[in-house]
Design a protein that fits this description.
With 786 residues, the protein is an alpha/beta fold. Helix content is 51%, strand content 16%. The protein has six domains: 156 residues, MutS, DNA mismatch repair protein, Chain A, domain 3; 107 residues, MutS, DNA mismatch repair protein, Chain A, domain 3, CATH 1.10.1420; 217 residues, P-loop containing nucleotide triphosphate hydrolases (Rossmann fold, 3-Layer(aba) Sandwich), CATH 3.40.50.300; 94 residues; 42 residues, SH3 type barrels, CATH 2.30.30; 89 residues, Ribosomal Protein S8, Chain: A, domain 1 (2-Layer Sandwich), CATH 3.30.1370.
Amino acid sequence: MLERTLKVLEYNKVKEQLSKHASSSLGKEKVEKLTPTTSFDEAVAWQDMTDEATTVLRLKGNVPLGGIHDIRPFAKRAKIGSTLSPHELIDISSTIYASRQVKKFIEDLVEEELSIPHLQNFANSLIQLIELERKINFCIGDNGIVLDGASEKLKGIRQQLKTYESRIREKLENIVRSTSTQKMLSDAIITIRNDRYVIPVKQEYRSAFGGMVHDQSASGATLFIEPQSVVELNNQLNETKLKEKQEIERILIELSKEVAFEADHLINNVTILAEIDFMFAKGSYSQKIKGSKPILNNQGYLKLLKARHPLIPKDEVVPNDIELGKEFTSIVITGPNTGGKTVTLKLVGLFTLMAQSGLQIPALDGSEMGMFQAVYADIGDEQSIEQSLSTFSSHMVNIVEILKNVDANSLVLFDELGAGTDPQEGAALAISILDDVYGRGARVIATTHYPELKAYGYNREGVVNASVEFDIETLSPTYKLLLGVPGRSNAFEISKRLGLNQHVIEHARLHISAESNQVENMIASLEENRRRAEAELEEAHELRKDAEKLHKELQSQIIEFNEKRDKMFEKAEKKAADSIEKAKEEAEEIIKHLRKMQREQYASIKDHELIEARKRLQDASPDLVKNRKDKKQTVSKAQKLHPGDEVKVLSLDQKAHLIEKVSTNEWQVQIGIMKMKVNEKNLEYLSRPKQVQTKPLATVRGTDSHVKLELDLRGERYEDALMRVEKYIDDALLAGYPRVSIIHGKGTGALRKGVQEYVKNHRSVKKVRYGEAPEGGTGVTIIELK
């Protein structure tokens, strides 16, 4: 029954969505094995773990779970003496590193006093295997190649390999390049066949070459021959490769033994990392569906606030409030087959399974979920047009099985109960089945389109009618659940909206009994009153929220004001106390000095000495106003900046020139060949170039021309470049620039050398140097002008 329930409630689809949030195959494996628990304590612990994960994700954004691999098979193979491959060892190293990162991440959270007891226990159980990680990384590179430094022997072998390969290539290249043999070759290349270096020789020149034939082309026109002159070298090369292979095998055996020694710790770490990954997969999934932690209870009580089905798109789903298990333990949703009833049925069942699986539910905070030992669901295709005996039979088979097992700890979901047979018999069966399940104490939600069940909830205590609201204007369900209001057929209203003649509708009403009309009118009145009450309740909730928000804001502002006021008082008192204390100390020093003078001179103190002491006492008194005035004067003396000024960029400790002001507080500056925006607070004024008064000369390049602080010569011919440099220096002198940059690039060095020699000998150049690293290095020449 459980498998069928999980299938019809689409529990596996939720698991598919959850699996996408796992970071490793370990987490995905945990998701695959996930099933709802029937233990209340276990469900509560699972929910707490998911809540910890959502809290961490909300505060930190992400968790360092990359690089985790399922290395349990490798560890087990190492324990029984198998030799692991380099890639398997790299996966082990990566997982050790990942466990170290996760452990540190959680420990940092604990230091920040975040309450995460489950994660803290996991972190405490993770075992650091730094030495094993270091040994693997020392011997094997990221690409899975055993490194030269893994052992001195391997390093020496590989040096020999390079020597042999170099000698072989040198001999073969001499043959390939020889004019006497070029015509005998199909192509002037060196290639490899059967791990031996060979050259491609035309078939007809086979006898001209000694050595061995290792391969031929598909046409047979080319033979791949190993010349006799390199046969011995190739033999030595292959022997050395064999030694390399043996040494690599020895290194891998040693590393595998190290893994075997730590195998149990590795398996323990992987098990814990799987749990952590699984936790954060559930937390991440909760964020996606905007879930909340449900309050779990053992009383079979459900209270869902604005619940949304997680498999329906957010822009389509309609939130609903649902309650079951206190005033009533059965809900009978009546009404025509217009959709929405089965969605509600599946939502309650799926939420129960999710809550008992440790998953948060897409509903508002404060929602409650009851724990059940079993969830039974008989849900078919409520949209089926053709009802047949086979349909009825399949439903009854499921219902019979459910009735064999149902008890007070069960949640039972019936969809279109009694459908598929004679309406009167079907309705009677539905009532009898509901009575039987209700009598056993189970929680029940059933949907039906039989009008006979509309009165069911009114005749039995603990049962409530419900319906899905239908919009006559749009001729479609709103999918809003109405508890306490039975469904009505809406057949006459729908027919009228679709254009059926009024006299036909009125004639049809004559065939409806007076009691039925009264019931329909009563239902319509109930719906109207409920809509009005809900609208007023929603408005009251909004007003209360606004009032609470305003109250909290005022409280916060008052608290903040009082705290600032107290801090200002404390600061002022401390400053005053410090000033007074300093004045007292100064006064004591003056008094001591006077007494000393009196003792030493054995006479009365002279007037000018008293005047000097009084002045020192006055100077010792605190004068905060004077200090503030001095500060204002200091600030007012700050130099105003202008384009062309030489400044210092404080954060970079580099000199620069101002180009233009780009905003209220920002300037565009030039540091060598680099331009950037800098805040005015980050600039220190150094100097300003003197303005040249000869106005006609300042417009040599035209009245609208602007002389840049750099000259870019990259791509220029040598002679043209020097002519441009000469003209540029003249223009820079006329513009009044103290320093400019010439960009010539590094290249072959001819242009750089020519520019350097030219500017060093120029009459108007005071100093020449290459740019610093931030200015462009040797690709730029900086010159200071006289």
